Write the structure tokens for this entry.
Amino acid sequence: MPDNISYTPEEVARILKISRFTVYELIKRGDLAAYRIGRKVRVEQADIDQYIQNTKSCVPNLTRSMVQAPDPGGDTQAGLIICGQDLILDTLSQHLEKLLPQLRFLRRHIGSMDGLSALYHGAANLVTAHLWDGDSGEYNLPYVRRMLPGHKTVIYNLVHRMEGFYVAKGNPKAIQAWPDLVRPGLRFVNRECGSGARVLLDEMLRRLQLEPARIAGYDQEETSHIAVASRVARGEADFGLGIEKAASQVAGVDFIPLHKERYDLIFRKEDLGLPHFQAVLEILRSKGYRDEVTGMGGYDLSMMGQKIAEV
């Protein structure tokens, strides 16, 4: 085959048996040479051959279980872009870096719906979500079906967490349940649209037929659980919604448990056999990672690493 023949990124993905997203990521980082004709990206056969030759030296560095994973021609350099905000994802990334030191693992601290959108648009390849559907009572599956049409995905559980209200130490305003959201005289601090906590709140309001306009502070938004808890600790709000773990990290805050949620990992089914993703599952099922997450407190690990569904 002549060296000057060129391919589109989609054709390269089929040749290398990797995702189209991975091809674009390799080109962006300079690991795979490419050029443009107008708005079209092209890759020459010689550059594909060179990339394959370069990756061969990386295979011996993989663990035995990774080498044996079904990955015919798969990429061994691109690593993962992991979306989510929970601290246990930082720990997961650290374990991945130790297990596969030649790969790159990047974090994007974005909410659940933004993560699913990034997966759909090819801007991420492993995302987390805790999106509750008020009609079915199910977590994540209804949203994956709606937001990734035509894309086969797999969903594995990471942990279960408790969502509830952050209140001032001693709970001086006696805040206890969802109807307190519309109690006169209370100031609330909200999460941003698209976050799992915001979806839970809005779904609960819909089910309880409570109008957001009646909540003082509904339009006051923060982009993390810690930020919400900090606003309460500083006296800028009487309460806010978030996970139990954040309450233990902010002095002067108590936690009122309300709703147990499932926090899942979601990625494309086509990537399941790649070493990167097999490494993730291996870590989730390892004693070392489980012990580390258990030591953090505030998490239920009873289903960690179990497959929830294929969608």
Remarks:
- The two ends are 39 Å apart (CA to CA).
- The first helix runs from residue 9 to 16.
- Confidence is low (pLDDT under 50) at residues 57-77.
